[in-house]
Amino acid sequence: MADAAVDSVTPVPVAIVGAGPAGLMLAHLLGRAGIETIALDTRTRHEIETTQRAGILEADIARDLVETGVSDRILADGYEHEGIELRFGGQAHRIDFQDLVGESVWLYPQTDVFVDLANARQRDGGTVLFGIKDTEVLDITTGNPRVRYTAPDGTRHEIRARYVVGADGSRSMCRGLVPEDRRVRYGKEYPFAWFGILTEAPMSAPELIYAHSAHGFALISQRTETVQRMYFQCDPEENVDAWPDDRIWETLQARVAGPDGFRLKEGPVFEKSVLKFRSFVQEPMRWGSMVLAGDAAHTVPPTGARGLNLALHDVKVLAEVLVRAFGSEGENALDDYQPQALQRVWRAQNFSYWMTQMLHTAPGGSDYDLRRQLGELDNVVGTRAGRTYLAEQYTGWPTRPTA
Ligand code: PHB
């Protein structure tokens, strides 16, 4: 029944603020367990679908998407990669995931994961509201939290939930609802960003190349046989308009150049943007009846390809815990969420930080810094233990905490 302030009131067990991959995967997993959700997002579906994001999925996450019935498109359209190349001193060094840890990863862009999840929600009759405004989350310290929002037609609505999940990304509104004197924010800024391009060109190599060079970092990734994704380290304030195609290619080629004569296959650049990043964690991940998941609670630099994987692991743990909370265990089940999620979060924080500092050149860095980095890279590729360390982390950790 509507009250004076809103046009409608809808009860639902779980309201999910944010309908990106984390929010939608949670909705999907809860839906499979018979728990209804309403997911809502201020962005339109089109906006989310057309924002370029990272492209690597752990094998476990890819399996979850297929086995829980989101989509098996990944098997047809994704590319399974059994390793990556670390390039430094102008030489290639392969990290063979299959040989080292018996795992692989999937190149499958986040935008495709989102499309698959949005389609699965539609197919399964789940409620997802895109393009809403003025989201308000109320009463999270009670057992009856509410979410209010304005629909695209200007009408105002209220959702009455038992739990609210904040899956509203790195600029999360929800995380700010944890009282200022009770939340701890851990973070680190980096003095560089990534210049990302999409180019119409054939693949330059069978696998991703993470390149260290005296000129800075570059990452050679892929999208399809004819579209490639590449990045190079740049100033966070870099202006994309100052970068015509020939300047971009010159920069990228210089960062992968070496005695082996390796060259990237060039083509027209049809998208360019500067991606700023940082390391960030907020604790606690739960306040009363509100739980945070994914980028809302933590973000990592993209160097280790952890962000999406970490978010999807959060919601896997959270879905299990919420199913138990709605069963005989009740609210106490929620206490298991943060410890399980956080162990992985901090491991990923370390890995992403480590990859970032090992591969990027700090502005104003000395020759000593550069040579020390080469020593570090040599330590990584030079022994099976070093390569295994990288392979284990890049391909992911088990969901359960381990000793
Ligand atoms: C991408 O393909 O966009 C991508 C791949 C690996 C990363 C980051 C981004 O570490």
Automatic annotation (TrEMBL):
Residues 12-351 form the FAD-binding domain. Keywords: Oxidoreductase. This is 4-hydroxybenzoate 3-monooxygenase. It comes from Yinghuangia aomiensis. It comes from the Bacteria. Gene3D superfamilies: D-Amino Acid Oxidase, subunit A, domain 2, FAD/NAD(P)-binding domain. Signal peptide: none annotated. InterPro entries: FAD-bd, FAD/NAD-bd_sf, PheA/TfdB_FAD_monoxygenase. It holds the Pfam family FAD_binding_3.
